[in-house]
Prior knowledge:
Elements: H1 15-21, H2 24-27, H3 31-47, H4 53-72, H5 84-96, H6 109-145, E1 150-155, E2 158-164, H7 165-190, E3 192-193, H8 209-215, E4 220-221, H9 225-230, H10 233-259, E5 267-269, H11 287-310, H12 325-346, E6 349-351, H13 353-360, H14 367-376, H15 381-398, H16 407-411, H17 427-433, H18 442-455
Parallel strand pairs: 3-4
Antiparallel strand pairs: 1-2, 5-6
Helix pairs in contact: 3-4, 3-6, 3-8, 4-5, 6-7, 6-12, 6-18, 7-10, 7-18, 10-11, 10-12, 11-12, 14-15
Amino acid sequence: MKKLWAGRFTQKTSGMVESFTESISFDRKLWKHDIAGSIAHAKMLSKQRIITQKEANSIIRGLRQIAEEIGKGAFAFSPGLEDIHMNIESALTDRIGPPGKKVHTARSRNDQVALDLRLYLKDAMQDIISLLQRLQKTFVELAEKHQDALMPGYTHLQRAQPVLLGHHLLAYVEMFGRDRERFQDCLKRTDICPLGSCALSGTSLPTDRAYTAKLLGFNSISGNSIDAVSDRDFAVEFLACAAIAMMHLSRLAEELILWSTEEFSFIEISDRFTTGSSIMPQKKNPDVAELMRGKTGRVYGNLMALLTLMKGLPLAYNRDMQEDKLPVFDSAETLTACYRVLEEMMRNVKFNINRLSSTAGKGYSTATDIAEYLVRKGLPFREAHEITGRIVLHCISKDVQLTGLSLPELKSFSPKISEDIIHVLDPAESVKARTSFGGTSPSEVKRQIRHFKKVLK
Length: 457
């Protein structure tokens, strides 16, 4: 098979080299974007009278036929033609003859692949942003449904203070919101058209890059042709956004795994989203959440792979950059799959409200409320903290919770303590008192829910 660049060579490419250098096995994912770029490029060449309208029509018609074949799975990709660009161009020339040889006028595979990757990521990020919004809505719905349910809040994985389950769920809505913002911001720097930069120096032909960018839906065009073909910052940034997003999913997965254990018994994950053991008949394993946690490592690795790939490359394009696609494809597909399965799984999680509520006040979780009660009575916080610590120590020695102490016992620790301390020990009262902006009080949780329902419309 004759290479499209074979004019300068006198020997046939080694089969071993063809196998080693091909990228069609993975960059065929870019076929829609490659064809869209070529159609826009042909329209621009015709507009600028670099090729005739008849030639452009023939090119566009041939490209659309190829797109239809690929969509049906009837197109034969050839590793000998290296990549998606040369596979499509070769097929186009076979179909329409000489006009097919003109489609590559005033461009290079260097700006072509940069274009395709940007188009791919624009589509991928728009999907991810939409999925994140859907996931936020799901968590807001769950928070609204369980807005009054008490649960123990944790720090260091130790019971800390009672909170509302709705408040805990809304924490993830905030996380997903930051993820959305990061992808939206990354999208701005991805939405730049490099086509027309050619190999690295532009072209002497009278092209109209702004017209091509407009046809392809780009917001702007790249300003420096060398940078345009050598830039992969947008891909690195996408992978960084994906890594942070997966970190959030991993933290959530960890909580779902813990909460579904017999020891916590806070939730039950639907049978549809769990698996069994090959040897232990009683097992119900949270494999979906565990895989989500595990796939985080893949996405982290993809970020490090591309950072390492790019760190020593001189300007402009280098063949090393062929290796940029697999990390990007894998992270986009992994993140998308995680969001889709997580949304459906969360809609099928059953919260054990009785268990959550019964544990909310244990572990001396209202101790901070006692300290704040003493502050309101006029004691310095550090003194109030020490007194409360002694009260907790007394409870430990008696093996009782704070609510198990009598009023005389409590008074013995400070003359500031009186009958009104009793309601302070109640987890429900503790939650009601947390009225600071963003706190866990019912009024604040309701406000947060109203806010998210408004902004997520």
